[in-house]
Write a sequence for this structure.
């Protein structure tokens, strides 16, 4: 399937993501993980740990990091980079929050879908 | 010629513009002000002291009738403008009267947001915005009774404190986990909650309002999503504001959330200015007074054709106007990689301060309990001064001189003499201090010998060392304690003892009182604290699901591909044709790829998609099966052999005993997983001697073994003791498990706990000291009363549905 997408796609409300928790967005190019840090900020990453593809959305959110549920890699929510001695990066998905709604960058999704 | 200036709105922003305007040139404009409220201009932020009775309305008036008259301002109080005709340069009011302008200033402010729940329009539901609202609250307070305030932000809390001061029974209902979460981090929010509660205000966080209930046209209460109803004679909605931009929008001005202005405060029409809470500037709308005043200066300058001042956005600070609560917040205090936190917690004074630095500049500050340096920090923040020279002592504030270091023994020093240090032997701080002084003790061994403190399980050793250190000063060298994680200097044992001794009952409370170095912990300490609190306060503590590892959060085991495995409980490893059929049906229905028998005598369904979990559980529940807790740091399985039911060598009913143990102990959380087994004879077909707890039945009764392992380490169990009856056997096992629950460190298996504490110590607690065994058993029973709810059935019924439902993109909209 070829998809041409542009602009921003609404995926839900800020209130849909639990504090210090996450939600998964099923996207054509693979799952996206939305996170909400304790201070209420929303982040979006590909739902894959750079280590062994673990679903980051299932990890524990602390500060601005998430700990992967499979092997405890700690991934920075802003940069997608693994912390500490580990090396690797999860793709950050551009997002906007407008009037409490979460919008993801459609182009990023389409590129990944291609 | 005098130009005509028309001002729509008579609030604080409009008033401040006129002040500046008349300072510059009182004669240039002939001014007409329209205000919907039928009164002169007053200081809206001081409504809270009026509500609480600390001020009268006259005290907060900023522009009285005489002011309008002396400045020649035509005030149309109680008159609302309904339209603007920009082409004709006129405005029309609600009476149909048309007024023309040369320059127009829109200062329509904002409106309180009313959450659209059933009953929101009932009489007795008010917002908190103007004097009429305050009068409605005062009228209700005069009659007494109960008030519910929806919204735990600045306004909501001020309303709550005011109503409480007027003698009402007040509850605050707040959607988020902590109060004022937009201005405060969780730690300060926790302190604030305590302060509100000490004023008699009940605080319900994470509480979603479902409806306002009432009968015969009058409000009677607030119904929460979880089914609770809070009685109310008045309901105050204080959940937020939104800019009043409709008039501007209808007039064709550019409007997003608010009326859009440039840095000159001009709207998309150069003759129309806008000021105050109705403004959107660089994407930002403000709801605090300081930005309004900044804007007002610029508007006044522009009206006088002075091009110099520009509005470039505001730094905002917040102070809660509740007498006796010192709270200050300013700037941006969110965490990010390029930022550094400096945190100071002084538990004994109830002080919390946090500074956020970026590139050697202060960008955010939160203070609770001591806000004396608020102005100093806010100034550093606004000026963007380089603070690298003073960063080491910055947190101590402007007046700091000399080098006070944080005292590592502060938490223990703050304990009362009656606080229990050693839970095993009931030794309190005063007794230990007296012994140290009277006997001249210099080490932990001495304290053990003379007081018995730290002589049993040893978990209070760290605290005893700190007491020695406080008494002896530099003369005492304590052993290194491995901290729980990077968030604290305290070890697991110290944290546990202090949770009990200081009655700490929530994660934010532990972090504040024990002076955690991070604002919300990490993936190591949060699950540990959650377990300790659950274990120590079983009837009071609310489990925090976000502090659980994924398996315990969703009650299934995550697999390498992100799918889950599901293991229904089979009591004692016994199943039935009906259960097996139901399992087979579930495997077919959900196309579950692998069905496997486990080492613990259970059936494991592997490869279940997360979204399918609730439906899988619903089918298993319908066949009478519940969660097998195969994911839990808790009791997993009791494996059995067939015993006297079938086996020609069986000495006791090992199957029946295993089922009894499992039915009694399921649902209990422990530091790490617990696996048990019961064998009907010493041939040991259920392999009881490599389990955490194993029972070997013999002719004369039951041998109870424990601390075995068959994983990374293989270790044979030790014999704890013998029991004559099944009841005694169960009591011993429950008491042993409770001792492990109370003394084990999080993630420490039972055999490691036993290695650390010592077999003899444990045997003495459980087998020799009968009152102690009974007490441990009783505590286990109390804990089980709240633990035995099937988590699968709860989630089938809808609990934490967000865990299992992904968000969906609207692909129809997305595809072009």
């Amino acid at each position: 399937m070829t998809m041409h997408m542009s602009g921003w796609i609404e995926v839900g409300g800020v209130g849909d993501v639990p504090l210090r928790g996450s939600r998964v967005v099923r996207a054509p190019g693979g799952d996206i993980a939305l996170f909400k840090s304790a201070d209420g900020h929303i982040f979006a990453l590909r739902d894959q740990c750079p280590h062994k593809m673990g679903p980051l959305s299932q990890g524990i959110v602390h500060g601005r990091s998430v700990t992967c549920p499979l092997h405890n890699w700690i991934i920075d929510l802003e940069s997608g980079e693994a912390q500490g001695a580990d090396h690797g990066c999860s793709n950050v998905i551009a997002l906007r929050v407008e009037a409490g709604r979460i919008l993801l960058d459609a182009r990023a999704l389409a590129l990944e879908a291609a | 010629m005098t130009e005509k200036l028309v001002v729509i709105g008579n609030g604080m922003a409009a008033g401040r513009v006129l002040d500046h305007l008349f300072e510059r040139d009182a004669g240039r404009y002939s001014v007409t002000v329209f205000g919907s409220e039928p009164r002169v201009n007053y200081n809206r932020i001081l409504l809270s002291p009026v509500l609480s009775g600390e001020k009268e309305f006259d005290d907060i008036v900023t522009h009285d009738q005489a002011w309008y008259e002396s400045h020649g301002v035509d005030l149309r109080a109680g008159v609302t403008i309904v339209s603007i005709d920009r082409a004709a340069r006129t405005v029309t009011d609600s009476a149909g009267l048309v007024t023309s302008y040369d320059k127009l200033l829109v200062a329509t402010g904002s409106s309180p947001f009313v959450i659209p729940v059933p009953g929101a329009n009932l009489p007795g539901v008010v917002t908190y915005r103007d004097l009429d609202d305050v009068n409605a609250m005062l009228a209700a307070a005069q009659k007494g009774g109960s008030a519910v305030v929806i919204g735990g932000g600045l306004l909501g809390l001020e309303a709550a404190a005011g109503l409480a001061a007027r003698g009402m029974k007040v509850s605050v209902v707040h959607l988020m986990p902590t109060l004022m979460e937009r201005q405060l981090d969780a730690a300060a929010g926790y302190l604030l909650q305590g302060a509100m509660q000490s004023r008699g205000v009940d605080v319900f966080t994470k509480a979603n309002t479902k409806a306002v209930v009432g009968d015969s046209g009058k409000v009677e209460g607030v119904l929460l999503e979880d089914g609770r109803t809070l009685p109310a004679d008045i309901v105050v909605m204080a959940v937020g504001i939104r800019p009043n931009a409709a008039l501007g929008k209808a007039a064709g001005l550019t409007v997003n959330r608010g009326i859009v202005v440039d840095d000159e405060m001009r709207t998309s029409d150069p003759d129309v200015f806008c000021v105050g809470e109705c403004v959107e500037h660089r994407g930002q709308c403000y709801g605090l007074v300081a930005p309004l005043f900044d804007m007002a200066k610029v508007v006044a300058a522009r009206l006088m054709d002075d091009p110099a001042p520009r509005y470039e956005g505001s730094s905002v600070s917040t102070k809660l106007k509740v007498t006796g609560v010192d709270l200050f917040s300013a700037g941006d205090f969110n965490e990010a990689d390029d930022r550094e936190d400096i945190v100071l917690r002084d538990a004994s004074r109830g002080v919390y301060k946090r500074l956020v630095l970026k590139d050697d500049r202060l960008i955010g500050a939160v203070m609770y309990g001591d806000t004396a340096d608020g102005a100093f920090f806010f100034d550093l923040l606004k000026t963007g001064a380089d603070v690298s020279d003073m960063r080491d002592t910055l947190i101590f504030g402007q007046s700091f001189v000399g080098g006070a270091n944080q005292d590592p023994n502060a938490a223990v020093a703050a304990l009362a003499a009656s606080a229990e240090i050693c839970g095993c032997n009931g030794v309190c701080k005063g007794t230990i201090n007296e012994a140290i002084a009277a006997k001249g003790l210099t080490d932990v061994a001495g304290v053990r010998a003379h007081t018995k403190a730290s002589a049993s399980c040893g978990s209070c050793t760290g605290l005893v060392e700190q007491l020695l250190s406080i008494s002896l000063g530099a003369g005492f060298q304590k052993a290194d304690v491995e901290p729980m994680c990077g968030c604290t200097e305290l070890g697991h044992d110290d944290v546990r003892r202090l949770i009990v001794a200081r009655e700490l009952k929530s994660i934010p409370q532990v972090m504040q009182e024990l002076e955690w170095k991070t604002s919300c912990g990490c993936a190591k300490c949060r699950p540990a604290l959650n377990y300790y609190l659950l274990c120590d306060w079983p009837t009071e503590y609310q489990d925090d699901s976000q502090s659980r590892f994924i398996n315990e959060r969703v009650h299934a085991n995550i697999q390498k591909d992100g799918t889950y495995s599901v293991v229904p409980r089979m009591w004692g490893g016994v199943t039935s044709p009906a259960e097996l059929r139901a399992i087979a049906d579930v495997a077919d229905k959900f196309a579950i790829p692998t069905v496997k028998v486990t080492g613990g005598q259970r059936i494991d369904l592997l490869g279940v998609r997360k979204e399918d979990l609730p439906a899988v559980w619903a089918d298993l529940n319908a066949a009478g099966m519940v969660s097998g807790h195969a994911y839990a740091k808790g009791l997993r399985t009791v494996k059995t052999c067939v015993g006297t039911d079938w086996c020609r060598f069986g000495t006791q009913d090992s199957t029946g005993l295993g089922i009894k143990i499992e039915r009694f102990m399921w649902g209990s959380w422990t530091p790490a997983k617990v696996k048990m087994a019961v064998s009907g004879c010493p041939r040991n077909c259920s392999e009881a001697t490599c389990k955490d707890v194993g029972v070997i039945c013999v002719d004369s009764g039951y041998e109870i073994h424990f601390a075995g392992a068959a994983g990374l380490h293989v270790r044979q169990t030790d014999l704890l003791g013998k029991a004559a009856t099944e009841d005694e056997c169960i009591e011993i096992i429950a008491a042993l498990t409770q001792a492990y629950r109370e003394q084990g460190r999080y993630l420490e298996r039972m055999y490691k706990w036993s290695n650390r504490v010592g077999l003899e110590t444990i045997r003495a607690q459980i087998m020799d000291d009968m009152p102690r065994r009974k007490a441990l058993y009783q505590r286990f029973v109390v804990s089980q009363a709240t633990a035995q709810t099937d988590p699968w059935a709860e989630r089938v019924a809808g609990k934490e549905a967000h865990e299992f439902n992904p968000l969906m993109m609207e692909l129809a909209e997305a595809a072009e």
Observations:
- The radius of gyration of chain B is 34 Å.
- The interface with chain A takes residues 175-177, 181-182, 185-186, 257, 333-337, 518-523, 526-527, 545-551, 554, 558, 560, 562, 802, 806-811, 813-816 of chain B (CB under 8 Å).
- Confidence is low (pLDDT under 50) at residues 401-406, 811-816 of chain B.
- The first strand of chain B starts at residue 3 and ends at 8.
